[in-house]
Amino acid sequence: MIQRRTVLKAGAAVTGALGSAGLLVPAVAGPAQATDLDPSTVPQFQQAMPVPGVVQPVCDLGLTSYYDMTLQEADAEILPGRLTRVRTFNGSFPGPVIKAVSGRRVVVRQTNRLSVPTSIHLHGGHVPQSSDGSPMDVITPGGGSKIYTYPNSQPHANLWFHDHTHHQESETVYRGLTGLYLLTDDVERNLNLPSGAYDVPIALRDARFDDSGQLVYTMGDFMKRQVLLANGKAWPYFEVAARKYRFRLFNTANLRFFTLQLSDGSAFQQIGSDGGLLEKPLDVTSVSLSPGERADIVVDFSRYAVGTRLILTNTGGLLPGDPVDQVGRVLQFRVTGAARDTSSVPSTLRTLPAAGSATVSRDFVLSMDETGATMDAFINGKSYDMDRIDTEIKYGATEIWTVRNANIYTPHNFHIHLVQFRVLERNGKPVTSGPESGLKDTVPLLPGETVKLQATFTGYEGTYVYHCHMFDHASMGMMANFRVSKSTAAPAT
User: Fold this and answer.
1) Which of 89, 107, 151, 351 has its C-alpha lying 20 to 30 A from 121's C-alpha?
2) What residue ranges in 90-235 does DSSP mark as E strands?
3) Edge-first strand listing for the sheet containing 412-416
4) CA 153/CA 354 separation, integer angstroms
5) Closest CA relative to residue 92, chosen from 204, 163, 178
6) pLDDT at site 490
7) pLDDT band at residue 393, thresholds of 50, 70 and 90?
8) What is the pLDDT of residue 115?
9) What is the distance between the alpha carbons of residues 66 and 59, in angstroms, rounded to a whole number?
10) Cβ distance 421 to 455 under 8 Å?
């Protein structure tokens, strides 16, 4: 078993650092580092933003595609003219893309050539326990391997995969171990949305570097992660034609919340969230993403003259005195010329499945020590224990979960494995429209906030986890096990 203190190190100095969304999280001191790189010295909008490469299967047999992936270190040019050591799938930074189809199975053999154990979780995936990437179901370092099977027995969704090894996922993901998984189906494919080169996934995160260009990792040091990355590049540019583009946005940061908008304040359309398309497109001027969340948007650049340059800005998580020229900018769009555009965004995108009738209600309280005296975080007053089942769920049950952030200063969010859920209420107000009206697997909770969620636990029996998806908080223990079983008696509400 991986011991907590092995990673967090008993007796490590703990300081109070203002964290995501401008709020307090503990910062845990690590080993001595070189001098930090001054983010203001990093040239902006000089590197082209790459589009993550699509991994090809090693073979296709019937209704199954087989993939081989290797977890390995590599050097990447994140900062212009410098190489940074990162942890990757197949040497790719940004992480690669697997394209999958509902009803067609994907089998991935992951071989771990890193020096640390790993466990790969398909975030948002409806998968058996054996392939869920349990925090303690690890692949041994130095060449161990594991086969993950993804049945894809769920509707289209923008999923992603990352390390989930308990106490280590925070650093391993920070150092790059993420990839994207785009699941489609006939509902999505039959729409005339922007496609091909005009359908672009963008993974967003922040980072901190030393003066040699290497990543600096210290748990909870949100305020020092002031270099923003889009698809693995620091403040890149992206050339666009004067037409509609679909951007699939992924927040892969450990702690940072993003609120994204165009620098001219103009509107665009949000068409999807974590669990795929919304029922109807939304006209918005910004989208907000906590760590792990996704947003699917369409931006029409035909309204701009050739030569126009727009910045995708960020107002999420900014604190008084923050360098807005760094953390307030993400990437630059450059309108280069006209292009034929036959795509469209229909007034109705999909019909969501019926929510069903809930028979069980539960309460969950998220909390952590805000004094800096300990490195502990809790759900319902308990820190994660791999050997403890915190919640027993009857297979097939539809349940309502009320989740509250009990902290005064610290934001959290909440992610449930196995299922997509519906957000019924936020702070006592019904959610009937807007970006949280679709299928979700991760929701933000600012201090004192409460959300009410509804999910149906079917498909697979087994033990899964729910947790804060701010990786540093999960590593500190804000995670719990739930078990789905046909033999479990449903508790009284």
Assistant:
1) 351
2) 97-101, 105-112, 120-123, 144-150, 157-163, 178-184, 199-207, 227-230, 233-234
3) 391-394, 479-485, 462-467, 412-416, 442-445
4) 17
5) 178
6) 59
7) very high
8) 97
9) 5
10) yes
Classify domain 360-485 at the CATH topology level: Immunoglobulin-like (2.60.40)
CA 97 → CA 71, 85, 181, 203, distances in Å?
Answer: 14, 21, 6, 11
pTM value > 0.85: yes
Q: Does residue 373 have a pLDDT over 70? A: yes
Residue 32 has which token pair? Answer: 């001595």
Q: Which residue has the tokens 């991935």?
A: 108
State the burial class of residue 355 (Cβ atoms within 10 Å of its Cβ: 0-12, 13-18, 19+).
middle
Q: Which residue has the tokens 């902006």?
A: 44
Q: Are 244 and 198 in contact (CB under 8 A)?
A: yes
Torsion of CA 156, 159, 161, 162, to 10 degrees: -160
Note the pLDDT of residue 26.
42
Retrieve residue 215's tokens: 């990543």
128-147 pLDDT, tens digit per residue, is 999 999 999 999 999 999 99
Read out DSSP for 78-113? -STT--EEEEEETTBSSPPEEEEETTSEEEEEEEE-
Q: What is the pLDDT of residues 292-345, one digit of tens each?
A: 999 999 999 999 999 999 999 999 878 777 899 999 999 999 999 999 999 999
Rounded Cα gap, residues 47 and 70, in angstroms:
27
Three-class SS string for 393-423?
A: EECCCEEEEEEEECCCCCCEEEEECCCCEEE
Q: pLDDT grade, residue 19 (50/70/90)? A: very low
Q: Two tokens at 230? A: 């889009």
Instruction: Find tokens 């925090």 and name the residue.
Output: 135
Residue 475 C-beta-side C-alpha neighbours within 13 Å: 29
Q: What is the pLDDT of residue 287?
A: 98
Query: Nearest Cα to 108, choosing from 157, 159, 155, 74?
Result: 159
Four-way CATH pick for 196-338: 3.30.360.10, 3.40.50.720, 3.40.50.410, 2.60.40.420: 2.60.40.420
Q: Classify each residue of 55-93 as buried b or exposed e, where b means 16 or more C-beta atoms within 10 Å of its C-beta.
A: bebeeeeeeebebebbbbebebebbeebebebbbbbebb
Q: Does domain 4-29+45-188 have CATH number 3.30.70.560?
A: no
Amino acid (one-letter) located at 490:
A
Tokens encoding 468? 């804060």
pLDDT confidence of residue 491:
64
Domain boundaries, the chain: 4-29+45-188, 196-338, 360-485
Q: Distance of CA 48 to CAs 96, 237, 334, Å?
A: 17, 5, 10
| Per-residue confidence (pLDDT) for residue 17, from 0 to 100 | 29
Do 4-29+45-188 and 196-338 share a fold? Answer: yes
- 399-413 pLDDT, tens per residue? 999 999 999 999 999
Q: Residues with Cβ < 8 Å from 41, sequence gap 6 or more?
A: none
